[in-house]
Amino acid sequence: MRKLLLPLLFALRLAAQGPADLEAVVNTELGTFRFEFAPDKAPKHVEEFIKRARAGYYDGSAFHRVVAGGIIQGGDPLLKDAKTPKNLWGTGGLNLLKGERSDLKHERGVVSTVRIPDKPDSDGSQFFVCVYQQPPLDGQYSSFGRVTEGIHIAEKISRVPAGENGFTDKLVRIHSVTIEKKKTEPYLGASVEELKKVVEMKTTLGTVRIQMEPEWAPEHVRNFLKLVSTGWYEGVAFHRVVKGFVAQGGMPDQRAGSQGHVADRWVRTVKREFRDDVKHTRGIISMARGDDPDSADTSFFVVLGDAPHLDGKYSAFGKIIAGAEVMEGFDAEPVTGEAPQRRVEVISARVE
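Above: the chain sequence. Below: its structure as tokens.
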């Protein structure tokens, strides 16, 4: 009896979650993406989408219309039938809801509801995902969510072969749409004591152990531990080596294959935590940034030689406590300008 009750109890707890605590998981033949809901912007649309998804309404349907690098459209129940003629694609599941237009912009990743052209209150089950920002659509359609994971899958779908009207040459099947509890960001709310961790990072040049120093820069430590614990840094290259100065890595476009990552949802800029009393000496780990002092996000650097001109201008957040041979390896690595001549990357990283 207990085994039978567990799935039921789990379902009841999930049902008790508010829409803001949930995500839709869209599993397609080209991959999976997830999106969170915006119940404060379109409560009825969110409620109806969740209800339909839980009832299996979208399972077996398809994305049928795309604009390369622009949008993808799906959710027509007629497309569950593989024999539905192309002239009827996109005509099902409309005229079910009144519009809930808001100030939510049609930016990259925003999910919105399809309606009949020139008929404002004809929304329904069909939806579209913005792969790129679509300003002309702002205020015209009911936006009710935003992609949190797998936007590269939506972009991949947008680039399937299609005719002039945007109808795909071949339907992109939606295997299922399920509703799950929203993922929790690691280390969010952790105390300074809880941030005093050691990170083991295995690189092409060997393994280093990095002592986190949250007293110096707590938010940068929190950010780094979050990315390490989710595997975000694995496969990302060190793209810049200046001998006797720094080795820099952690840029998303330097990941092998340039693929997105499940933790991209939590990548954001971190405000400066500069300290004049923390010196950029050999072995210090600090955060790279752009011209804006508050623009650090994922890219970090290892200090290979004393660099006092960086003190008070960059946020140091850790120090190497084992693996000095890796720094020696960076100093010996052949480079062209500041670019390593071979790929040097983070193979793995974990919080001890």
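DSSP finds five helices and 18 strands in the chain.
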